[in-house]
Amino acid sequence: QLQLVESGGGLVQPGGSLRLSCAASGFTLDSYAVAWFRQAPGKEREGLLCLSSGSGRTINVYSLKGRFTISRDNAKNTVYLQMNSLKPEDTAVYYCAAHPLCSSSYLPYKHWGPGTQVTVSS
Length: 122
What we know:
The chain is mainly beta. The chain has strands spanning 3-7, 10-12, 18-25, 33-39, 46-51, 58-59, 68-73, 78-83, 92-99, 111-112, 116-120. Helices cover 0% and strands 48% of the residues. A hairpin with a 4-residue loop joins strand 7 and strand 8.
């Protein structure tokens, strides 16, 4: 059974950093594109970054600039989201999702983790 589980969320002060993890079971992550999304209360789910399958090319389909990076550790079957210079507006539940190809919309993604809460506050 294909499963994704996020971890690494928590409370961080503005300007701080967090690294989120997305661990997969039941399949190998490098055979799928894996994307990070987030959803704040009352807002639509927002795409952040996507890592393509195979070579693991980062695809910035969501026009996110600068502060976030995505990476993959094939040995651990885990994808990471490194978030730097965090701001209060980054507060949201963060999700990873897998699909054969990176998509500019969250709609095609069929495999999702349960999410991890990130709160940026002093």
